């Protein structure tokens, strides 16, 4: 099983990024896919989830209206679109599918 995140980087406040999470090694479409983040000195928090069967999504209050999670089951990939980024969105973003975690991708919001 492999989960690989990409798309992080340095962006100015108000900017956008699109994170990708490529999944291989198991039946992706049956599982909910989650994005978490962990800022320095803070606990890891759930940012967004998209369910496998019906595609239902849910978001942390801190990102509602700014972030969008989506999935492409044909490509075994989960996306997280980050818009209107704020300083406090700076963190390592992790993808989790089932019991499996990726290594994370750094998002830094700085002017």
Tally of strands: 11
Mean pLDDT: 95
Helix content: under 10%
Terminal CA distance: 37 Å
Q: Please report which band the strand proportion falls in: under 5%, 5-15%, 15-25%, 25-35%, 35-45% or over 45%.
A: over 45%
Run of helices and strands = EEEEEEEEEEE
Structural class: mainly beta
Low-confidence segments = none
Give me the Rg, rounded.
13 Å
- State the shape: globular
Number of helices: 0
Largest sheet: 7 strands, mixed
Secondary structure elements and pairings:
Blueprint: E1 2-6, E2 9-11, E3 17-24, E4 33-38, E5 45-50, E6 57-59, E7 67-72, E8 77-82, E9 91-97, E10 100-101, E11 105-109
Parallel strand pairs: 2-11
Antiparallel strand pairs: 1-3, 3-8, 4-5, 4-9, 5-6, 7-8, 9-10, 9-11
Describe the structure.
The protein has 111 residues and is an all-beta fold. It has no helices and eleven strands. The strands form two sheets. Strands 2, 4, 5, 6, 9, 10 and 11 form a seven-stranded mixed sheet that branches. A four-stranded antiparallel sheet has the order 1-3-8-7, with no helix packed on it. A hairpin with a 2-residue loop joins strand 9 (91-97) and strand 10. The N and C termini lie far apart (37 Å).
Structure summarized in a few sentences:
This protein has strands at residues 2-6, 9-11, 17-24, 33-38, 45-50, 57-59, 67-72, 77-82, 91-97, 100-101, 105-109. By secondary structure, the protein is an all-beta fold.
């Amino acid at each position: 099983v492999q989960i690989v995140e990409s798309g992080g980087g340095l962006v100015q406040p108000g900017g956008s990024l699109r994170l990708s999470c490529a999944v291989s090694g198991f039946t992706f479409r049956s599982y909910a896919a989650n994005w978490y983040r962990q800022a320095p000195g803070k606990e890891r928090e759930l940012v967004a989830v998209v369910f496998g069967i019906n595609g239902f999504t849910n978001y942390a209050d801190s990102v509602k209206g700014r972030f969008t999670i989506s999935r492409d089951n044909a490509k075994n990939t989960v996306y997280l679109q980050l818009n209107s980024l704020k300083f406090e969105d700076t963190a390592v973003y992790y993808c989790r599918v089932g019991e499996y975690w990726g290594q994370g991708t750094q998002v830094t919001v700085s002017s």
